[in-house]
Amino acid sequence: MEPRFETLKEKKLVGKQKRMSFANNTTKELWHGFIPRRNEIKNNVSEELFSLEIYDNILFFKNFNPANEFAKWAAIEVSNFNHVPNEMETMIIPSGSYAVFIHKGPASEGAKTYNYIFSEWMPKSNYDLDERPHFALMNGKYKNDDPNSEEEIWIPVKRKN
Asked: What is the model's pTM?
């Protein structure tokens, strides 16, 4: 599984966020709170959904502990922040380089793709993690736990020195 490389332009997002850990993963609750309200966001750029993680520092994966918390977002891209529904928040993904992997299969098997990225691909690559948000982009090919589901995994990278 080889990635494609993209230079992401800055993106504005509106959505909901929640602190969680891999040991206490509350992603389903987050999405259950966002999906019924996503149509309240009127200035969306597309129907693609962002499942985004912001780790507190670059050492999160080097000193991995499944109890360490991070911020997880359920969001959609918008053209501006003029109409933010109540109880939703804004965030900006800064521009930068990303390695983009395609996860094929049920979302529940996503850990296999992430394990490959961080245990196999990243150590052998010419890249290090960059300190920007990580995210999964879910478009029309995403079907949650369907074996034919696909989603893009965007990992922020920078060339090794």
From this structure: 0.90
